[in-house]
Design a protein that fits this description.
The protein is an all-alpha fold. About 75% of the residues lie in helices and about 5% in strands. A hairpin with a 2-residue loop joins strand 1 and strand 2. It starts with a helix and ends with a helix.
């Protein structure tokens, strides 16, 4: 250790003492380097945990934006059905079609066991969904429930990251806002690029989406025999995607604004405060200008 090096240095002649003195200086330098590396590694760990929080938050906002549009927007389906003349295609009353829609959306969230939904079509009682449509909606339900599960996992990830930052004694009010901005920007930039690509040919990428997420052709429905495709035509999906993108964009901007405000006030609080009379005093100085005059 350091003490043994000092003791040996005192008990040796000048040449040996000079050698051990250099060794002692080298030892102190290595300790300084190691401590510096530890600080850098700790700072890197803090930043990584913060960026993970940003990624997780973006996933939460994306899934919540989808839910907000498809479940929380009053009158959305009624307006879309009227806009695209869906009632004429399925020969149903609006009230009956909205009841079917409510049951379908409840099924997708796991709040209904099956999709055997009786209704009135063209004046005749029947089940709205046929076997092929039910089989396809089972796949869609899997995507919905998977998305909700992913949101819960993301919330858990944020909790774990924040707990680790607290254990590591990180400056959360500085690290989290800054890294969330960086992580959110990266995630949002990727989604923006994808959205721009999809916007060039929505139909093409809509089909690619189905090939990626479905391992069968049940999504290929016939308008002459399947009512489902008539109530959610392609323009309906385009409107829904645009509304989700707008909702998500606003929520991301809100997160950015909050983080920037926190960082601004955090930075302002750390800046030295000067006297209004230009005396150059810093806030918290015990010696004031009046005392100096005395």
């Amino acid at each position: 250790g350091v003490e043994s090096l000092k003791a040996h240095y005192k008990s040796t002649d000048f040449a040996d003492g000079e050698l051990w003195g250099r060794c002692f200086l080298l030892y102190k330098s290595l300790r300084h380097v190691n401590s510096r590396k530890d600080l850098l590694l700790m700072k890197l760990l803090h930043n990584v945990l913060g960026i993970l929080c940003g990624f997780a938050l973006m996933i939460i906002l994306l899934i919540t934006s989808i839910e907000a549009v498809t479940y929380w927007t009053p009158g959305y389906y009624e307006k879309e059905y009227a806009k695209y003349g869906v009632l004429n295609d399925v020969h149903m009353e609006m009230s009956d079609l909205l009841d079917v829609t409510d049951e379908m959306m409840a099924y997708l969230r796991g709040n209904r066991e099956d999709l055997h939904v009786p209704t009135i079509v063209n004046g005749q009682p029947r089940e709205f969904f046929n076997d092929r449509e039910i089989a396809h909606m089972e796949d869609v339900r899997g995507l919905f429930l998977g998305g909700l599960a992913l949101r819960r996992i993301s919330i858990g990830l944020i909790v774990i990251c924040v707990a680790l930052l607290l254990v590591l004694k990180a400056d959360i009010r500085r690290v989290l806002p800054k890294m969330i901005c960086i992580g959110s920007a990266l995630f949002f930039a990727v989604l923006a690029v994808l959205a721009g690509i999809i916007a060039t040919d929505f139909n093409k990428y809509f089909i690619i989406f189905h090939h990626i997420f479905f391992n069968n052709d049940l999504w290929m429905l016939n308008p002459d025999t399947d009512l489902l495709i008539n109530i959610v035509p392609e323009p309906f999906f385009m409107d829904t995607a645009a509304r989700i993108a707008a909702t998500y964009g606003v929520s991301v901007l809100a997160v950015f604004a909050i983080c920037l405000i926190i960082l601004y006030y955090k930075t302002s609080a750390r800046e030295p405060k000067t006297c209004l009379h230009g005396c150059g005093e810093r806030r918290g100085d015990r010696v004031t200008q009046s005392r100096e005059k005395k």
